[in-house]
């Protein structure tokens, strides 16, 4: 029964999912978003400085919160700007077009979707009224839609810009330079016609027709983000998809993350923004708007890697099976740092009808516990993106801005995973020990045979 | 021989690479091997490699890796699931030797 299911996973479920994730435009989204992660990690950490976990420190830094959060605003707060370039670069490269041109064109299109303002009229009045600090500042670009809120606009801009560039290149609507012109100069001219078309098109749509694409996209996607961020089943869905893909042997987080990571980043940005505005660190009214950005899964659910396999590595360490003990020994240290391929392919968990069950079940249960723990405010929500190779208790502590309840929850989840893995581990161990004993008796049989043969 | 291994982020392949190096030393095999993540593969494979290996959990991207490797004239193969653990090092060394020749 379970074997049939695993075969179905491998043959029917996995190939279309994997194909989807490898789809050219999604891949560009993945690459572009991943290229922003170092900035997101560094930028999000400033919330810990602005909202230190110690009350005395909080009072001390309170007057400087605005200044402290500037690195956050320039990284997480502008994530769609960076992503627009990275995605455009990746998509152009996938068509064998010039990556930098594609990135720049995508970025320009995205920026064109935002209208700069000149508020000097108002400021001049303030100057005349003698208000301190008021000074004309020329044109300014509102940042509201340049962070997470602009992500879908960035994705659409990237697709439109690079596809136009590709179409015009394929149809030869480009300036071709005489051969004597150096290649880099020629390349910059190649993008000239596509740039003209893209910019004029964006200008007509955004300025002349005054059509706010960002508002439209957000009204379409906001309900989806609400579901995947706060609805129990929406939060559970990635967990199921990721563990099912791993059970069929492919990297679940890398596949599902391609689709989900933009949404996860939008949630993280909104969470940090809420705290920066003086909200509390827990989920709910007056606090964080989202339960489950990526760190939720990373630290509370994937303890030791996808499938919460740290628990299994611990069980293997104490196994009487020689083989499983060996697997436990080489899996435990990577597991502490959330790398579990040695375990997944060593045990193996892939296509294993016994171990695949707790591999899916344990994260489902720990997700349920964690979801309600965050929802009712037992632990703080997630405002920081910490590097995923940190041991889970440390990562959880950082990612929640210093919540010890989160550390406790990680430890509880490890115990729960231990309890869920245990009966399946016992069944599998028994099978392995039987096989090992058979091998030993076979070996002694053969050695006896060789002995008689030589004698 | 110079070998390149690719996985998703370059983390798990680094673990396998470490055990491969130990095994190669034990067997006295000359092995220069490096692990990279998906994003780095296309550029890295151009650097005079004799052979490229793809981790099993990213087999759904094999076609892409193979295309980059082909363009660089490097033979490219998938690692069987069981080979992708520290215990799989001896069989993986055999695969590398067979693949390079």
Q: What is this structure's SSE topology?
A:
The complex is a heterodimer of chains A (455) and B (101).
Chain A: H1 2-21, H2 24-50, H3 55-61, H4 65-68, H5 70-75, H6 79-94, H7 99-112, E1 117-118, H8 120-128, E2 139-140, H9 151-170, H10 183-190, H11 192-208, H12 213-230, H13 232-247, H14 252-276, H15 294-301, H16 310-317, H17 322-336, H18 341-346, H19 356-375, H20 392-399, H21 404-454
Antiparallel strand pairs in A: 1-2
Helix pairs in contact in A: 1-14, 2-6, 2-14, 6-7, 6-9, 7-9, 7-11, 9-11, 12-13, 13-14, 13-19, 15-19, 15-20, 16-17, 16-21, 19-21, 20-21
Chain B: E1 2-6, H1 12-27, E2 32-36, H2 38-44, E3 51-54, H3 62-71, E4 76-78, H4 89-100
Parallel strand pairs in B: 1-2, 1-3, 3-4
Model description:
Mean pLDDT of chain A is 90; it is low at 451-455. Chain A has helices at residues 2-21, 24-50, 55-61, 65-68, 70-75, 79-94, 99-112, 120-128, 151-170, 183-190, 192-208, 213-230, 232-247, 252-276, 294-301, 310-317, 322-336, 341-346, 356-375, 392-399, 404-454; strands spanning 117-118, 139-140. Chain A has a two-stranded antiparallel ribbon. In chain A, α9 (151-170) crosses α11 (192-208). Chain A is mostly helical and 455 residues long. Chain B has 101 residues and is of the alpha/beta class. Chain B has a single domain (2-100), classed as Rossmann fold. Chain B is 45% helix and 17% strand. Chain B is globular, with a radius of gyration of 12 Å. The interface between A and B is medium-sized, with 28 and 24 residues.
Q: Report the portion of residues of chain A in β strands.
A: under 5%
Total helical segments of chain A: 21
Q: How many E-type strands of chain B?
A: 4
Strand line-up of the largest beta sheet of chain A: 1-2
Q: What general form of chain B does the structure show? A: globular
Helices and strands of chain A: which structural class? mainly alpha
Strand residues, percent of chain B: 15-25%
As residue ranges, the low-confidence spans of chain B are none
> What is the count of structural domains of chain A?
2
Calculate the terminal CA-CA distance of chain A, rounded to whole Å: 50 Å
How widely separated are the two ends of chain B?
Answer: 10 Å
- Name of the CATH first level of chain B: Alpha Beta
Which protein chains are joined by the largest interface, and how many residues does each one contribute?
A: A-B, 28 and 24 residues
Name the overall outline of chain A: globular
Percent in helix of chain B: 40-55%
Order of helices and strands of chain B: EHEHEHEH
Average pLDDT figure of chain A: 90
The overall strand count of chain A is: 2
CATH superfamily of chain B: Response regulator
């Amino acid at each position: 029964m379970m074997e049939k299911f695993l075969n179905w996973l491998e043959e029917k479920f996995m190939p279309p999912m994997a194909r989807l994730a490898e789809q050219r435009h999604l891949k560009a989204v993945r690459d572009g978003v991943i290229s922003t992660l170092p900035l997101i990690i560094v930028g999000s950490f400033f919330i810990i400085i602005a909202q230190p976990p110690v009350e005395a420190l909080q009072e001390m830094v309170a007057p400087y919160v605005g200044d402290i959060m500037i690195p956050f605003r320039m990284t997480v707060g502008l994530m769609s700007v960076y992503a627009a370039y990275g995605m455009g670069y990746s998509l152009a490269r996938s068509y064998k077009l010039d990556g930098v041109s594609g990135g720049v064109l995508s970025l320009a299109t995205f920026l064109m979707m935002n209208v700069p303002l000149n508020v000097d009229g108002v400021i001049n009045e303030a100057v005349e009224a003698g208000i301190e600090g008021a000074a004309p500042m020329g044109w300014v670009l509102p940042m509201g839609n340049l962070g997470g809120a602009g992500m879908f606009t960035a994705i659409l801009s990237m697709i439109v810009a690079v596809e136009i560039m590709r179409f015009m290149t394929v149809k030869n609507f480009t300036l071709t330079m005489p051969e004597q012109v150096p290649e880099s100069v020629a390349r910059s001219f190649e993008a000239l016609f596509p740039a003209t078309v893209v910019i004029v098109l964006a200008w007509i749509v955004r300025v002349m027709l005054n059509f706010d694409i960002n508002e439209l996209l957000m009204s379409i996607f906001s309900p989806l983000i609400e579901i995947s961020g706060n609805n129990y089943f929406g939060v559970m869905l990635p967990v199921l998809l990721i563990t099912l893909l791993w059970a069929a042997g492919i990297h679940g987080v890398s596949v599902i993350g391609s689709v989900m990571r933009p949404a996860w980043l939008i949630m993280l940005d909104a969470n940090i923004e809420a705290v920066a505005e003086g909200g509390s660190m827990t989920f709910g009214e007056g606090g964080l708007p989202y339960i489950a950005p990526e760190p939720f899964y990373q630290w509370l659910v994937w303890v030791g890697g996808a499938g919460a396999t740290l628990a299994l590595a611990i069980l293997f360490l104490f196994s009487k099976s020689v083989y499983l003990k060996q697997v436990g020994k080489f899996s435990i240290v990577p597991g502490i740092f959330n790398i579990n391929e040695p375990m997944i392919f060593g045990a193996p968990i892939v296509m294993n009808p016994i171990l695949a069950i707790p591999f899916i079940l344990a994260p489902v249960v720990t997700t349920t516990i964690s979801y309600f723990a965050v929802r009712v405010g037992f632990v703080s929500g997630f405002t920081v993106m910490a590097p995923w190779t940190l041991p889970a208790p440390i990562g959880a502590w950082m990612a929640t801005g210093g919540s010890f309840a989160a550390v406790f929850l990680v430890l509880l989840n490890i115990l729960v995973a231990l309890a869920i893995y245990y009966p399946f581990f016992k069944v599998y161990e028994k099978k392995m020990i039987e096989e090992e004993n058979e091998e030993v008796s076979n070996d002694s049989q053969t050695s006896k045979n060789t002995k008689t043969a030589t004698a | 021989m110079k070998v390149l291994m690719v996985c998703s982020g370059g983390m798990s392949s680094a673990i396998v690479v470490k055990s491969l190096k130990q095994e190669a030393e034990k067997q006295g095999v000359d092995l220069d091997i490096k692990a990279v993540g998906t994003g780095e593969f296309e550029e890295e494979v151009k650097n005079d490699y004799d052979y490229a290996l793809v981790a099993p959990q990213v087999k759904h991207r094999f076609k892409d890796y193979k295309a980059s490797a082909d363009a660089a004239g490097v033979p490219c193969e998938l690692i069987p699931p069981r080979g992708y653990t520290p215990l799989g090092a001896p069989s993986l060394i055999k695969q590398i030797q067979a693949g390079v020749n």
